[in-house]
Design a protein that fits this description.
By secondary structure, the protein is of the alpha/beta class. It has helices spanning 37-40, 58-78, 94-99, 101-117, 174-196, 237-250, 263-268, 291-330, 338-349, 355-364; strands at 2-7, 19-24, 29-34, 42-48, 51-54, 82-89, 121-129, 132-135, 141-142, 150-151, 157-158, 169-171, 203-210, 213-219, 278-284. It contains 10 helices and 15 strands. Strands 1, 5, 6, 7, 8, 9, 12, 13, 14 and 15 form a 10-stranded mixed β-sheet that branches. It has a 3-stranded antiparallel β-sheet with strand order 2-3-4, covered by helices on one side. A hairpin with a 4-residue loop joins β2 and β3.
């Protein structure tokens, strides 16, 4: 898993917290300053990540986000594997960053691969709100663990997807894909506004399927709605999935299973947490920092360290096995002597008359 931070290179100071977030994409560094004036500023957080994307300019940001967050996942899909991009954080443009121009670049690559391979690219989407699942393409409620098949409005058959049985619909062109994404975003925002008074409080997952390859794009609820670091809120239906997700990111041993009750980690289990998947965690940070965003940066930092630690542990184990085998090949054991062979035979056959002549032949050899 790689961790990418999406932020503005020159953030604005929050009037409430007094925090200012800054980043240097070329150095892959993000830091948060506290206080005003050169003499009064203190560093509240500073770290490097696998990638940092400057979201100040829309043109360059889309390509940079695709290169850092989408490219490897798309490559995995075209190779019949699983790719996943998980977006967490806060800010009005968070969902748009995941499903906007960078996603359109990914769709163009997948549609091209579909044309070259003679395969069909399909899409499915679900929405998680108050730990309830909704299929965003047909509006139907989904019971976790069920599968669903049916026919679309045009009579096209729809096959079951990995998103708890949400139906998949074919995408035949870039225009159709863009329209489907727009409809999905609008349906999710409408559901959140009706339930919570504002959009951004639910989890949105989109799955693109190409043959055996699958790309999962997940927008976790806005951190301003899911104060996952709060023990008081983490047990509620709205925040339980977010809190469990952070736990799974920070501790690889806490990898979710289908038996877990939190829907977001369960949804991500076969893709984001799978050892063979190409996974990217994108942390979207607004220009004006807050203590909660600093907590999210620390969580992302912990996730990056946990991923590197697990990779290093696996590498160390593989290296130890290779060194052992190389040592045995470099220093092979000498062949057994005649006395050792006879001793072994006596242990098996007993001290019979047949062992004596064999011993004399071995000694002559």
């Amino acid at each position: 898993m790689k961790v990418i931070v999406y932020c503005a290179s020159e953030g604005s100071q929050s009037d409430v917290s007094g925090l200012t977030l800054k980043c240097t994409p070329s150095e892959r560094r993000v830091w948060v300053e506290n206080g005003k004036g050169a003499g009064g500023r203190k560093i509240a957080f500073s770290s490097t990540f696998d990638g940092v994307v400057d979201g100040s300019t829309a043109e360059g940001a889309a390509q940079a986000l695709y290169d850092e967050g989408f490219a490897k996942a798309v490559e995995a899909v075209t190779a019949d594997k699983v790719g996943c991009v998980l977006c967490v954080g806060s800010g009005a443009g968070k969902r748009g960053a995941l499903l906007g121009a960078a996603c359109e670049l990914a769709l163009a690559k997948l549609l091209q691969a579909a044309d070259e391979k003679g395969l069909e690219l399909s899409i499915a989407a679900v929405h998680v709100l108050w730990e309830r699942l909704t299929d965003l393409l047909d509006g139907a409620a989904i019971e976790p663990g069920t599968t669903a098949t049916g026919a679309g409005g045009d009579g096209t058959a729809q096959s079951a997807s990995m998103l708890f049985g949400a139906v998949q619909r074919p995408l035949t062109s870039a225009a159709a894909a863009t329209a489907a994404l727009r409809d999905i975003e609008e349906a999710a925002a409408a559901a959140e506004a009706a339930a919570m008074g504002a959009a951004g409080g639910g989890h949105l997952a989109v799955q693109l399927t190409l043959g055996e390859g699958k790309l999962l794009l997940v927008d976790a609820s806005d951190v301003s709605f899911a104060e996952a670091s709060s023990s008081l809120l983490s047990s509620t239906l709205c925040h339980h999935s977010h809190a469990m997700l952070l736990k799974c990111l920070a501790k690889p041993s806490a990898r979710p299973t289908v038996a877990d009750t939190a829907l977001l980690p369960r949804l991500l289990a076969p893709s984001f947490f799978d050892a063979g998947a190409s996974a990217r965690l994108v942390l979207h940070v607004p220009p004006s920092a807050s203590p909660t965003i600093v907590d999210m940066l620390r969580s992302a930092q912990a996730a990056a360290k946990a991923a590197k630690s697990k990779k290093q542990s696996d590498s160390d184990r593989s290296g130890a096995v290779i060194e052992l085998l190389q040592g045995r090949l470099a220093e092979p054991k000498p062949p057994p002597s005649a006395e050792q062979v006879v001793s072994s035979l006596r242990a098996i056959m007993g001290d019979t008359a047949a062992v004596g002549p064999l011993r004399r032949r071995l000694m002559r050899a």
